[in-house]
Predict the 3D structure of the following.
Amino acid sequence: MFARSADRLAGRLPARRHARCVAPALAASLVVALFAGPAMAAPVPDTFADLAEELLPSVVNISTTQVSRTSSEQEIPQAPPGSPFEDFFREFFERNRPENMPRRATSLGSGFIIDKGGIVVTNNHVIAEADEISVILQDNSRYDAEVLGRDPKTDLAVLKIDTGYDLPAVSFGDSTTARVGDWVLAIGNPFGLGGSVTAGIISAQQRDINAGPYDSFIQTDASINRGNSGGPLFNIDGQVIGVNTAIFSPSGGSVGIGFSVPSEIAQRVVRQLQDYGRTRRGWLGVRIQTVTEEIAESLGLEGARGALVASVSEGGPAEDAGIVAGDVVLSFDGRPIEEMRDLPRIVADTDIGKAVKVELWRKDAMELVSVTIGELEESPVVASLGAPDAPGEGDSGEISQLGLGVAAITDTLREEFGIAEGAKGVLVTEVSGDGPAADKGIRPGDIIVEVSQEEIASPSQIKAKVAEAQEQGRRSILLLVEREGDLRFVAVRIEAG
């Protein structure tokens, strides 16, 4: 279970190794080898006390209050049914309490100061839906906070407090240079206990925990508990390389698996929230899906890599650049796309209005297009794909190699399967329970829009495409399938038929 939370270490400082007696010449060569190697780690300090003392004043506690109103009916103690006190309880509480009682719910989190003028960074979930937000400094002084901006997609928020004097601030470091195994410190407010320091190492990078579209978390074994949310993750130089955000925990407490938003992402978001009060993300205008080994083979692409374009938004930057469904994005603005989830992050971080080169795999060949990046709006519209004219009534057939029964879309079938007006393609009417199509989740009522990246309108076209793929020695064939308006590519294994 992933829990929004955030800090403590499960390990110890590594024990010093005891030197052994070696010949002088051998010892000299060992010294050269040890100290000349590029992988030599920075020395581990005997204590983190000096670093903690320096950083603690910059870490704050966040206290929020949410006021709700609840009907007094829910507040009345219930006497046993039939008891002589039942009417007394009801009359007394209804007479002495207002109809709606205000209730105040409070919660605690963490944050850190990034500007001496009182700019504080925390998690969005720490302050979401709060009616009152207070920032508590290390000396226990409390200040009301103003929300400058927040971003639910990366779970970040920026606050402003006015103290009348300069505050100790920390700076962001470069999370891209951090390595697995590097020492880190987490400081925060676990369980409301106030400034607590824990130490650990970076356990992993670029973790996707399905928390949002731009997941790329730093994983650490430094203890992160409830109340640490929004606190900083420091490197050994005292720079913030992460914002502690979530934990994986069956119990709700730290089990040594915590996650931080890397500074590579946080810095850009924080800067935009300060400048605009919101984020301004780049927009390409495509819906994408993972390139599996089967999809790669069916497209003639060497290796499962890139992001497969499932559909293109009408009037979006991708459509203007000539990108179409079935293209595989291999690189964007000179940065390789190894996995599907790389593309949304890279596009979002691209400056709006910038013209970038996009490398595509299209029909067994490389293509290079130029795209001018737009600004991401809420819920961009996905384009519907056109198709050739539909064939005559009654066209149907069995595609035994795929384990499918298909038919041209008729008015009768449209009504039977609840197909929307204007839907184009070939309807799936039957699916063999043990066939290749069933293995991929295809079911009756789905519409096959494309086969091998070419639009189809009749069962005979599908049969011809399957036969062509078999002649070419391909083990699978790529289908573009529509289900309730949602388009996705599916690579289906071809069986001998």
